[in-house]
Amino acid sequence: MGNQRESVHGMWSSRAVFVMATIGSAVGLGNIWKFPYITGEYGGGAFVLVYLLCIALIGIPIMMAEVLLGRRGRASPISTMKRLAREEGASAAWSLVGYAGVVAGFLILSFYSVVAGWALAYVFQSAGGGLNGITAAGSASVFGDLVGSPDQLVVWHTVFILMTTAVVARGVRHGLERAVSVLMPALFVMLLIMVGYAYVEGDFARGFNFLFEVNFSRVFQVCSGEGAQIACRVSGEPLLVAMGHAFFTLSLGMGAIMAYGAYVPDHASITGATITIAVADTLVALLAGLAIFPIVFASGLEPGAGPGLIFQTLPVAFGNMPGGHLFGTVFFVLLVFAAWSSSISLVEPAVAWLVEVRRWSRVTAAFLVGALAWLLGIGSALSFNVWSGPEYQVLGKTLFDLKDFVASNIMLPLGGLLIALFVAYGAGRHMALEELSISRQRLFDAWWFVIRYVSPVGIAIVFLNSVGVL
Ligand code: PHE
């Protein structure tokens, strides 16, 4: 608004399309696969509460900051940060935010694609009748067979990377606009039906309490074991993981939202759009939790089962519900789609940048980026079989877990912190005022206070806590 720049990569045709595409980026495996499994691992309600607080106090304000920077700069995150730092008389070093984001995008895609590959494999499992009448034990063994096979994992990972690359090569707009506005609502409806199933057939009360009953001591504890055997130790980890997940699930801190912000029409309101996106994303995660935990408890499964949780749980529901054969297949198709519309945004910052500075075509840039992510992803696929042993682990984590941990819990919050600091201190009030053009002064002042003090201090506290300083 302050300037009339145009993006060389095209524009969203309306604010509504931006909202839909960004919901497409935000809603993905993070909501349906990761949220339930980490909530299960970190013990439920207390973790969920911290995650919700992080969404409200850190996620939403920083998302507004990312969108406003993107629209102001109208270029890839790297070029945007360079350009705005120059205009605002700030250090050129701020562009590091953009570079770090590109690296985080690669790291995330390289494990994301493997999990998306599981979802692809389950489309065929379900369509072929492989889940019909399945028991909890049978479901665990189907999952075990899949992740135990490096060949299968690499094939599915390859398919998913090709799918992502193909859309990014065509330009995000063409590939995405229409599909997202139909399939995202479909996924939402599907989840509602599954919550209905969990209500009737699952142990709904126990699942609900697990998600929403807050036991504050669990905020600072990591526990393992069950019942009387449960053993807990004090740790800053749950806090760090909950905050990292708030960034991950909103696609924040690595430039994806900034890249999408670059294509937002001039006069669209950023505040309303951001809140809609964050609320939709949070609802999807909570619905996924409500669909899964009642089944986990009713089938005697383990909430802390780890990354396989939904793939071991949901088939039990699909395998035994009327129409589950079709229903399960459609569900996994929609899950693949949700992952797809997220992975596109993981590579968009890198591709947009290569197009700008190297003058490559989108096709060349997308294929190069896809090839690199593919190569990195092989290590994630092997983490479940050939490289699963302790001799291949660092700090007790496989390559898959390590990439997730470093990218989600360290790089994204750090990127978010720097984005908040740039908007609040590097650029200053006038830029934010112009871009946000919030008519109610009080609302702007509240956001400005949060982005200056609350979000940065919050992130810093969680970081210091997790390294044992606080
Ligand atoms: N938000 C996506 C999800 O929840 C993942 C993602 C993270 C996408 C970062 C883009 C950038 O599945």
What key phrases describe this protein's structure?
470 residues, mainly alpha, Amino acid/polyamine transporter I, two-stranded antiparallel ribbon, 18 helices, 2 strands, 2% strand, globular, binds phenylalanine
What's the gist of this structure?
The protein is an all-alpha fold and 470 residues long. The chain has helices at residues 15-26, 29-41, 45-73, 77-87, 96-127, 136-147, 150-170, 172-201, 204-212, 237-249, 256-261, 270-298, 309-320, 324-358, 362-382, 399-427, 429-436, 441-466, and strands at residues 221-224, 231-234. Phenylalanine (PHE) is lined by residues 25-26, 28-31, 108, 248-249, 251, 254, 256, 342, 345-346.
Task: Please describe what this structure looks like.
With 470 residues, the chain is mostly helical. The chain has one domain: Amino acid/polyamine transporter I (Up-down Bundle). It is built from 18 helices and 2 strands. It has a two-stranded antiparallel sheet. Strand 1 and strand 2 form a beta hairpin. Helix 3 crosses helix 4 and helix 10 packs across helix 18. The longest helix has 35 residues. It binds phenylalanine.
Helix content: over 70%
Percent range for β-strand residues: under 5%
The major sheet is characterized as: 2 strands, antiparallel
Summed up, the domain count is 1
Gyration radius, rounded: 21 Å
Beta strands, count: 2
CATH fold group: Amino acid/polyamine transporter I
What is the string of helix and strand elements?
Answer: HHHHHHHHHEEHHHHHHHHH
CATH class value = Mainly Alpha
Alpha-carbon distance between the two ends: 42 Å
**Which CATH architecture is right?**
Up-down Bundle
C-alpha geometry: globular
Weakly predicted, low-confidence segments? none
Assembly classification: single chain
* Structural class estimated from helices and strands: mainly alpha
Mean pLDDT across every amino acid position: 94
Strand arrangement, major sheet: 1-2
Helical segment tally?
18
The set of bound ligands, ions and cofactors reads: phenylalanine
